[in-house]
Specification:
7-stranded parallel sheet; globular
């Protein structure tokens, strides 16, 4: 018997077999949970119905739901109430921002409407679902779970307004946990590493993000939807009865590392600091804005990342320090030699 036997959960956000929500459904089903699903529109309905059948559910437990509509959210829980006498949790795996907001300099592309849409769909929808689920979760010591990303705390190129929306979402986790805790409802979030999903396809140069994360993470790889699913199943179970208001990282440890690190002689790839004409050079070191970089020092990779960009007077360039394997999908890669 699995550790979710007898539990009932609503999963919001299944869009394809590669969705993180699908990995969560797989893990919860394996552990014995009964599942209900929502689908955004008729285009996604058939996919969700197939997933529901695969995980022991049926069409009666699949509901249309555009999370931008309070009316549709309310109808979901009214429908659930006719099928189940209670609910043990909701998984919120929804995020969206207009594509033009996810390509380019944040200060150049941000708009009022894009800001509103990103926050309404990616953050407020979690609050709206929690409010609507509350009556069905009464007295069941249930759990609410959402998905976030580390760009809520550090800048990530092209993620732009979604980083702000994820920060808002994480704040919602804390405030909901405080508000609903006295009723026995726990609220948590999972900050997953980058995974190639339908939603991620809208982020420019996402494959470069995958390559960089894999090089940076202590595990030297990216995580899978199955690994996120296992963590989600645990957090929604009684095994995690003492955990609430937390953001749990499932990213191979990448968020704890400031830059990739390899032992000498290993295959590695990274940019070095190249001085602009105006940068001062002193004793074999490149000095800029109070930060010293010795020629050959590994800084970060791939590509000019925000922390490197803050080193005024320096620019990144690719250089051969050890045998270099070009990382797949990294544009603009060139193997030069340092000019020390």
């Amino acid at each position: 018997m699995g550790f979710l036997a007898g539990k009932r959960f609503l999963i919001v956000g299944v869009a394809s077999d590669r969705s993180i929500a699908t990995g969560i459904a797989e893990a919860m089903h394996r552990e014995g949970a009964e599942l209900a699903f929502t689908y955004q529109n008729d285009k996604l309905k058939s996919r969700v119905l197939k997933a529901a059948e695969r995980y022991g559910s049926n069409e009666a437990l699949c509901f249309p739901c555009d999370v931008a509509s309070d009316e549709q959210i309310q109808q979901v829980f009214e429908g659930l109430g006719k099928q189940w006498d209670g609910l043990d949790g909701v998984v919120h795996a929804v995020g969206f921002a207009p594509g033009n907001e996810l390509d380019g300099n944040f200060a150049d592309v941000a708009t009022r409407e894009g800001f509103r849409i990103a926050h309404e769909i990616s953050s407020y929808s979690f609050v709206a679902l929690a409010q609507a689920a509350r009556p069905l979760m009464k007295g069941r010591n249930g759990a609410l779970l959402t998905l976030t990303y580390h760009a809520s705390r550090q800048t990530v190129p092209n993620y732009n307004v979604m980083g702000l929306a994820k920060a808002s979402l994480e704040a919602s986790v804390r405030y909901l946990a405080s508000s609903l805790g006295p009723e026995g409802i726990r609220v948590n979030g999972i900050s997953a590493g980058p995974i190639r999903t339908l939603a991620a396809s809208g982020i420019k140069k996402f494959r470069s993000m995958l390559d960089y994360n894999a090089a940076k993470a202590p595990l030297r790889r990216n995580v899978t939807i199955e690994e996120v699913g296992n963590t989600a199943a645990f957090l929604c179970s009684d095994l995690a009865s003492g955990i609430s208001s937390e953001i749990t990282y499932v990213d191979g440890g990448a968020a704890t590392e400031s830059m990739p690190f390899e032992e000498p002689g290993e295959e590695s790839w990274f940019p070095l600091a190249k001085p602009h004409r105006k940068a001062r050079r002193n004793g074999g070191f490149f000095r800029s804005a109070g930060f010293s970089l010795q020629p050959g020092t590994r800084v970060c990779g791939p590509g000019p990342l925000p922390q490197l960009g803050h080193l005024r007077g320096c620019e990144p360039f690719w250089s051969r320090h050890a045998p270099i394997k070009k990382p797949a999908g990294v544009a603009g890669f060139s193997a030069g030699r340092r000019s020390a």
